[in-house]
Design brief:
Chains A, B: It comes from Winogradskya humida. 2 copies of one chain form a homodimer. Chain A has a 5-stranded mixed beta sheet with strand order 4-3-5-12-6, with helices on both faces. The first copy, chain A, has a 3-stranded antiparallel beta sheet with strand order 10-7-11. In chain A, strands 1-2 form a two-stranded antiparallel ribbon. In chain A, 44% of the residues lie in helices and 22% in strands. The longest helix of chain A is centred in the first third of the chain and has 31 residues. With 291 residues, chain A is of the alpha/beta class. Chain A has 3 domains: 86 residues, Orthogonal Bundle (Arc Repressor Mutant, subunit A), CATH 1.10.10; 101 residues, D-Maltodextrin-Binding Protein, domain 2 (3-Layer(aba) Sandwich); 83 residues, D-Maltodextrin-Binding Protein, domain 2. Chain A has 10 helices and 12 strands. Chains A and B meet through helix 4 and helix 5 of A and helix 4 and helix 5 of B. The structure holds a DNA duplex (25 and 25 nucleotides).
DNA sequence: GTCTATTACGTCGCCCGTAATGATC
DNA sequence: GATCATTACGGGCGACGTAATAGAC
């Protein structure tokens, strides 16, 4: 059974004539006759009685006609739907992400997303969350993945993905003791981590000295590992592979902002960005029912 | 878009491999690759991402897969359903009918039924209703069309189709007057018409003389037209084309049995007979909605 | 090195078109 | 005689198979 046969059959019934159907289909009449004949032979029934002047549906023909219409209709629907999804599959997507993402597997997300949407050109930009939010404002990135600080401006919308904790990291073999006089490594003033450090130190009753300024979490860890000082940082980064450091849990750990998906409020996400947002959220769910 | 492409695509996804799908389909792998490629080209989207070791559905592929399964499932259903109807289309059907059928167009019914069920071999047997009922008892006919008399044995089931009236027919130019001394033409004793004649005459206070016995309604009319006598008969027969007679309505016309479809109670109708029964009943309805 | 998908290429099938025949009004 | 469907026959497109190539583990 071929689609062509169903199309021809429907046309013959609709026009009530092999000749008119053939004209409508832009083919010769014998082709129509042959296909109808083949269909009848395969199904083993007569579909319509020909009287050279008029055709009439048999009971089997009536049944087939109804089913054929359904099938052909669904086929048209498939073409439309796939084309619509295809439009989403096109386009560009720029994602901004900080280094510290905790349990969020950005690499895996990008890989599976690219498999599911190979037509979308992906670009990734990393940096501190403040810089990335600036890129969001300027329309340079569609979505930002990073820590969501408490003082986040309300022109952004947030979807939380994972929690994060704060730990103290020191060089290996560094004696545990008072932190008051330790040199600290931290991000530049104005960064979220710097605020966390000050908050924690103030709670402990001292002003931290920050002689070393790093430009990213990875750098902080490298500097600490080299013995230049100590630092507070996200637990996930401290525990991930990298330069060796001693990780010390904090008794009264300040709140570290969780990792979230940020977008510009009021600016509608592109279809590609919306698809990626859903994809990341879906990936965070522990049980992923594939179908 | 071809059915073959949908089948191949579904097989590839189900097996998770071009090679296994090809083996299952009993074709070579390149044929599968080519068809999937054609499908993707026509739809303008990538359906699955190949990594030579594993295939993954894209979003468009997932959508198409769901639709394809529906369509292929419906196609299987069509084959089954048509085959089932095809079984009904086969077989033999023997119909018995009396001459007098009133507004029931048996010829038309047989013609349209044959157009709708060309695979059913039709046979028609005519005669008096008593004979036909005998044929029904002996299994020689599946259905009987004819007048349904009041004394019908309850081993038959009845579906009424049309009413019938009784008229008096006389030769042309015959003077209207008392019927007491007229010679009557009628069917043999025991027939339904004979009973009707006696009932009417008794009501009028006389015993009818029946010197002429005919073997069918048409014969009655011919004998009356020839001037041999008068008769009571079904109005439809009297008014239909044939030998000229004078039709006289009766003041106190006895009830003439209506025309009905008779079958043997307890004996299940063959599929062909059931279809014909429905067909005749449907044809009797004034408005015939074709779809 | 093995397994898998793609590309290359030749062959066969079948769908279509033209022409002739048959049937019905 | 006109119209319509069917048969007869030839050509061309396309799907399949075999073989070779490229890529992933």
């Amino acid at each position: 059974m071929e689609l062509r046969q169903l199309v021809y059959f429907e046309a013959v019934v609709r026009h009530g004539s092999f000749t008119r159907a053939a004209a409508d289909l832009h083919i010769a009449q014998p082709a129509v006759s042959a296909q109808i004949r083949l269909l009848e032979t395969e199904l083993g029934v007569t579909l319509l009685t020909r009287t050279t002047r008029r055709i009439a549906l048999t009971a089997a023909g009536e049944l087939l006609l109804a089913r054929a219409k359904r099938i052909l209709g669904e086929l048209d629907g498939v073409r439309d739907d796939v084309a619509q999804v295809g439009a989403v599959l096109r386009g560009r997507l720029a994602v901004g992400a900080t280094e510290v993402l905790g349990t969020v597997d950005l690499g895996g997300a990008l890989a599976t997303f690219h498999r599911r949407h190979p037509g979308i050109a992906l670009s990734l930009r990393t940096g501190l969350v403040a810089e990335l939010l600036g890129g969001l404002d300027r329309g340079e990135v569609d979505l930002v993945l990073g820590p969501v600080h408490a003082d986040l401006a309300d022109r952004y919308t947030v979807r939380m993905l994972a929690a994060e904790d704060v730990v103290l990291v020191t060089p290996l073999g560094h004696p545990a003791g008072g932190l008051r006089d330790e040199p600290f490594v931290c991000l530049p003033p104005g960064s979220g981590l710097r605020a966390i450090l000050h908050e924690a130190a103030t709670a402990a009753g001292f002003e931290p000295a920050v002689p070393f300024e790093a430009s990213g979490p990875g750098e902080i860890r490298a500097l600490v590992s080299a013995g230049l000082g100590v630092a507070v940082m996200a637990g996930s980064t401290a525990r991930s592979p990298g330069p060796p450091v001693r990780v010390v849990p904090l008794d009264q750990a300040p709140e570290h902002p969780g990792i979230g998906l940020l977008s510009r409020r009021g600016r509608r996400l592109s279809p590609a960005a919306a698809a990626f947002r859903q994809h990341v959220i879906h990936q965070m769910r522990p049980n992923v029912p594939s179908r």
